Amino acid sequence: MFTGENMVGMNHTQATQGVWSYTQSSVYDFAVANNLDQHNATHLVVHNDSVAWYDAITTASTLRAVLNTHVPLVMARFPLVKSWNVVNEAIYSEDAQPGGWRDCNLYQAFGANWPSEWFKLARTVAPTAELCWTDFTAIERTSSSGFTDTKAALIWALNDGAPINTFGMQMHMANASNNTSPAEMVDRLGQIAALGLDIRITEPDLYDRDSTWPLATRRRDQVAYHEARLGAILAQVPAVKSYNMWTIGDAESWLNFPQFGGNRTDGLSGEFSAIGRDGIVKPEWWAMFERVTRP
User: Which of 71, 121, 263, 269 has the fewest CB atoms within 10 Å, i.e. the most exposed one?
Assistant: First the structure.
């Protein structure tokens, strides 16, 4: 299974309005050439797509016209993608909007429950593809508001006839103190599954910061242990169908970038993923994969 990360984001498809340039199409071509299934290929409709002209649109008629063109063209360009993240990060309770909706141009233009329309459009373009709603505060956070708001939004959309097949959970396990208990994660995942949805873990990662892993020694073991702990949680929920990491290796991880916290201040390189900066799979991670996948 292969995820094209930000392959179909607006900044990689239509950075200039009306000018189409698929700058990361080689990712898709690589997967096709190697017979890799492609699931959850980034996000068709997302807030803050790093494109100023798009983010500035808050008028419903204008934004609807843009997306009615953008979504079908992008999906047609990548016809062998089996699973599409149609909507991403629609809920963000910290924005203090009714229902927990993220205060973005999509919410400002269409109001609450805006995702339903775009799932229906995506289904007309790809009648047999898996369509996924992805979010990131519903399962792992200590606060329950992200979960209750996300579940309510999903129920509304499903009752409205939105053809949602899958719920994608990012699972950025950034701060252990901000994570709820394993039992609560299992319960929340089970409640989502009870809506008739499969679940995909779409962007899991662990921060490796001075405050998270203060000791220089055995940091790989520490991170691998916590990934295995997450795997044990997911194994209790049969509806969880996949676990896609949001990076190839440490060198490529988005967690390296300064805007997301940068690297460690003690001069050590971050340990985020299964593959080190030398391109070699870490033995600690092989052990983790075996603990998770073998009964």
Answer: 269
6 and 13 Cβ atoms separated by less than 8 Å:
no
Q: Are 6 and 42 in contact (CB under 8 A)?
A: yes
- CA 230 from chain centre, in angstroms, equals 16
d(CA 249, CA 35): 21
Least confident among 179-183, 239-243, 253-257: 253-257
Q: List the chain domain ranges.
A: 214-295
3-state secondary structure of 47: coil
Quote the pLDDT of residue 73.
94
Q: How far is CA 128 from the centre of its chain?
A: 21
Q: Tell me the torsion sign for CA atoms 184, 186, 188, 190.
A: negative
C-alpha–C-alpha distance, residues 121 and 67, integer Å: 10
The predicted model scores a pTM of: 0.89
